[in-house]
Amino acid sequence: MSVPFQKYHGTGNDFLIIHADEYVPDRGALAERECDREDGVGADGILYLALEERFRPPRVIMTLVQPDGATAPMCGNGARCAADWAMKKTGSDSVMIDTQAGTLRADREGDEITIEMGTPTFDPEEVPVRADEPVFEEEIDGLEVTMVNTGVPHAVAFVDDVDDVDLATVAPPIRYGDEFPAGTNVTIASPDGDGGFDQRSYERGVEAETDSCGTGAVAIAVVARRLGLTDADPVSVNPPGGELLVSFNDRGNATLTGPVEHEFDGEVAVESPTEL
Questions:
Q1: How far is residue 75 from each of residues 171, 183, 250, 276, measured CA to CA in Å?
Q2: Which of 112, 128, 202, 247 is deepest in the core (most CB within 10 A)?
Q3: pLDDT less than 70: residues of the chain
Q4: Do 86 and 190 fall into the same domain?
């Protein structure tokens, strides 16, 4: 028994999209198998999407299952991929995305899609981080990190050059640090020389560096503005997979803009009801 999928990526952050109506008895197990880049299709997660066309704009219910089999409440690039998928099905240039971190609006602007990212928070209880007050530039396992939640927690550190950091070695002790009851993503940034920032992110749930991380890009822009490192709007953030733009509205809410690409379609095997 198999189910169809569509492969999408947003600046290299790639996902399998499966309609939520498809019968998948163990979503976590499927993600562990098919996200594997050697033995599976290869992806940073599987998006299960349910489309509700009766609303204006149309609504999409998004569930992200990561390569470790766990669900994540939010993913900026994943939400942009979900938006593109829904827009192509409905012919609309605007959709609402229902995530575990809240309902967000997405709009198409030419070849790019902009997604609302909610209101970032430094509140220790909401990050979460075990601290009595917000964490700004505190040394944790060799990096001076600032803690922020942009839909998911991020430990953000500014360095001289992101390419000089052995992220695969530096990130795991922070990602699994006792300070973080829910774990944390680890994102590093450095000035790109043109007023923006280069980015690298080690993602919780992927347990590896990804080519792009939308919530990480927003985290960099939010922290950079808070620390006085930029007053630009939009803030250009450059992960390995391409450029993302982060803007802020009058309420302090962030938006994330970047390209989305539909790569290919395929099928993955799942257990049939008779095999359970």
A1: 19, 16, 23, 31
A2: 202
A3: 272-276
A4: no
